Amino acid sequence: MYDTFIKHLKSYKSTKISLGQFETWADPQTTYPQFHRAMQTLLDNQILIPVRSSGTNAKNPPLPMAYRIQKSVLSQPIKQAIKQAQLCFHPSIRLDVYFRLAESRWSKDLPYIQQVHDYLTQRGFPQSEATAPERSFHLVGDEKWIDEKGGRKLLEAIGVWEQLKVTAMPDPLMFAVHLQQVGEQQGIYRHLIVENKTTYYAILPILSSLPYATLIYGAGWKVVFPELTAFQSSWEWGGMRVISSNILATSIMKVWRSGTRFLKNAGPCRQLNCIGHCCDSKHPPEKEGSG
Prior knowledge:
Elements: H1 2-11, E1 16-18, H2 19-25, H3 32-44, E2 48-50, E3 66-69, H4 71-74, H5 76-88, H6 103-123, E4 130-131, H7 132-140, H8 145-148, H9 151-157, E5 166-167, E6 174-177, H10 179-184, E7 189-194, H11 197-203, E8 214-217, H12 226-229, H13 232-237, E9 240-244, H14 246-258
Parallel strand pairs: 4-5, 7-8, 7-9
Antiparallel strand pairs: 1-3, 2-3, 6-8
C-alpha cells in the first residue's frame, strides 16, 4: 500500500492533502492497521508533515486529518537515480533537464537514452551527415523515432543533437510543365511558385494559357528553406526567372476571370528565396488592358 500511496503522491498537484484522499486510494479490503502502518511510514520518512490544527480521526491509533507533502523528499530517490545515471552514461550526454521534469518523463526516456549511450560508446559521434530516418535507425532501430516519436526532442534535451549531424530530407518537388512555353521559347523561362496546394490545383487547369514554363508547389514555408537555396546559383546564372507567392497567384486567378493578360517582358532576376512578392524582376509584372 505504501508504494501505491507514493505513486499517487508523485502525480498529486497540491502540496496539501487530506486523510480522506488516502482512504480513496487504499484498497477496499485493507484493514485499518495496514492503512495506519502505511501512513505512519510516510510520516516517518518525512514525506508527509501533519497539519496539527486539523486534528486527528477518532480511531485508535489516531491519524492526522490533513498533511503537507514534502515534494523535495518525495522526489529524492529519482534524483539520486538520475545522478547515478549521469556518472554511467557517455560524458556528452547531459541529464540536468530531468531534474526539472516529471518522473514519468524520465522513465519513458531512459531506455532511449541508454541506446544513445550504447551508440556513442561503440561508434562515437558520426563524421558525416545522415537523414533523420537513417540516423534514427542506427540509434534506436526505428526509422520514425527522430521525426515522429519525439526522438529529436530527447536528443536536444540531452545535448547531443548537433553532434549527431542529422540533415533534413527535403520533400519531393511537385510541379507541372507548360510544354508549349518550353518548346517555343529559348534561353529564358519564367516559373510560378505557389505556397499552398489549393492554389496549385486551381491554377493547374489554366497553366496552358499563362506565360509560365512551370507551375511549382512550394509547400508553404518550405519554399524558402535550404532546398531552394541550393538551386540559387543555377537560377541566377541559368536564365531561370521565378515568381513566387499566393498573393500573385490569387491575382492571376482574378485577372484570368476578367480577361486581362500579363505581359511577358520582365527585368533581370534580383531575388530568389522570397515569398509575398514578385521575384521575376524589380517590380511585379505589368498588365495589359483587358481583352
